[in-house]
Structure formats: C-alpha cells, structure tokens
Design goal:
- The structure holds two protein chains of two kinds.
- Chain A is an all-alpha fold.
- Chain A has one domain.
- Chain A has five helices and no strands.
- In chain A, helix 1 packs antiparallel against helix 2, helix 2 runs antiparallel to helix 5 and helix 3 runs antiparallel to helix 4.
- The longest helix of chain A is centred in the N-terminal third of the chain and has 28 residues.
- The model of chain A has no long low-confidence stretch (mean pLDDT 86).
- Chain B has one domain.
- Chain B has ten helices and no strands.
- In chain B, helix 5 packs antiparallel against helix 10.
- The radius of gyration of chain B is 17 Å and the shape is globular.
- Classes of the chains: A mainly alpha, B mainly alpha.
- The interface between A and B is large, with 45 and 42 residues.
Amino acid sequence: MALGKSYSKLIRILMYTFLLSIFITAILASLSIKVGYTFFRVSLLMFVLIPLIGVLYLAIRKLLIRDFETLIPLIIVSLVILVNILLNISYIQELFQCLTK
Amino acid sequence: MAIEIILLFIVTFCIGSISAALGIGGGSLIIPFLVLLLNFDIKSAIAISLFAIVSTSLAATITYSKKDLVNFKYGSLLEIFSVGGAIISSNIAILIDEKYLKAAFSIVLAYSAYRLLKKKKARQLKNSIKKRTLLSFIASFMAGIIVGLLGIGGGVLKVPVLILILGLPIKTAIATSEFMISITSSTAALTYYAKGYINPYFITAAILGSFIGASVGSTLAVKTKPAILKVGLAILLAVFSVLMLLSCLGVKLWL
C-alpha cells in the first residue's frame, strides 16, 4: 500500500477511536464518575498526540525502505516533540498517578 | 457552563464550515469569537483554537494523504523548524501579558483581511538553492512562532513557502501544509494543555464542532461562490481586528 494511503488509514482509525472515547468519557465525566473524568483527560491527551504517532509511523516506514533523506527529519521532529512532552512531564505524571490510584 | 459549551459547539461548527469552504485554518475566527463574544481570556481561547485546528487539519490530512498529495519529505524537513518555533513561542506566550497578545493578534487579523482582498500575483522565486532553503527554514520557524503565540494555523506562511520557494504544485502545497499544521498545532496545544489553560469540556465542544463543521463546509464550498465568502470574511476579520485592538486598549465593548 502507498505510504500516503496507509498513513491516512492510520490517522483515520486513531482519530475516530479517540473522538469516540472522548465522547463516551465526557458523558461519564458529566455524570460525576471520577474515573470517567480522568479517562476523559487521557483521551484528550491521546488525541493531541495523534500527529506524533503519525510521525513515528512514517519514520518506521521510511526506515524499512531506507529512505534516510526523509527519515532523519522525521526522527528530529519526533525528538523535538518528545522534548516538549518532557518539559511538561509533571502534568502527564499527575494524570497517570490519577489513573493508577 | 452548559450554555457556554453549547455556544462553543455552535461557534466552532459555523467557523469550521466557513474555514473548510475557504481552505483556511479557522483560528483567526475562533479566537476573536471566544474573546469578544464569550468573554474567554485570550490564552484559553488560543488553547481551544489550537485543539480545533488539530481536529480540522487531521481531517484534511486524512483526505489529502489518501490521494497521495502530501509531500512528506519537504513537510517533515520544514516541520523541524515549525515545531521548534511552536514550542518556544507557546512557552513564552504563557508568560506574556494578555494585552500584548491581543495587540499582536489584532495586527495579524488586519494583515489576514488585507491578504484576502489583495489580488495575488504569485511568482516563483529564482534565487539560488541555498538562499531559498534558508528562506524556507526561516519562514517555517516564523509560522511555528505564530502558531504557538497566537493559536492560528500558520497556513498563511506555510503554503506560500511551499509554492513560491520550493516550487510545489498548489494542491500538493495545501496538502503538505495541512500535514505540517497538524503537527505544529498539536505540539503547541500540548503545552497549553499541560499548563492548565484548558477546560476539557470546552475542548471537546471545539473539537467536535470544528470537525463536524469542516465536513459540512467541504460540501458548502461546492455550492457557494468563494469570492463572496472571501469578501465577507475579510470584512469580519477587519472588524475583529479593530474590536480586539479596542479591547486591548481597555475600551469597554458593548459585548
């Protein structure tokens, strides 16, 4: 399958999955179910991470076909985004602590 | 809060439809609506706008990449600079006083209105490869700065770079720009989300509103004349620019 088509398929699956989970957990949260609210925030976080997942997928595909011209920028983009996540790690840690409680 | 959520859904739905019909991000409309009509503080409005942009740009990327229109090579290369710019500016924007953000936003709105009305005479640059590469990197970085600082998509800068500097065909440039916008805006949105500028319910309303609106808007685009929409949008942006400037100067608006 062409790269564009498989990328499109992946993003579509991720987007609909997380939109559905956002919608369901939002309903649960509005019914004052505490776990629902935490999962609601996690779903939103996952939604915002879809592009990063997409970039990592593209990087893996480019690695498989050894297209290093595109692979290197993709890896750098992923690393820069990961640095941003690390800068904001305290919030994400707090979120996962809520989940494990 | 329920009324605000419903209003936010309606506003983002309408803006999503207009944006999709005109092929713009929508951030330049969402933020003034939220600040001037719904009395949101500008940083929360920027955060909500970024989430709405992630939603619409991902939806557009799905369509474009299915048709193999996205140039991943150029997109990922330029995205290094855009993402860097977005991270720096989103972390700085949190520290900046609201009135300066409003002033900057007002200028960008006025410029967008001018660009919509101005007849474009696009000519590809014939500079050396080195110069063009450097120029495209700088422009991408600036686009990233705009995304993180003002919560707009940055397509205004990205599309011309891809067409005029890198010589991509218009359709490929728009598709690649959407792919880039999805990554840049998600990076900036993450910063705002982590710093606690967002109410999850408002984001959900914005994401769903803009997503459904964009789907309707693409149908609307076929039935309406883009020229009429463009003039209407330019007037609206100019009015918002003035209102935003007045709000930044502390003038009490009737809204």
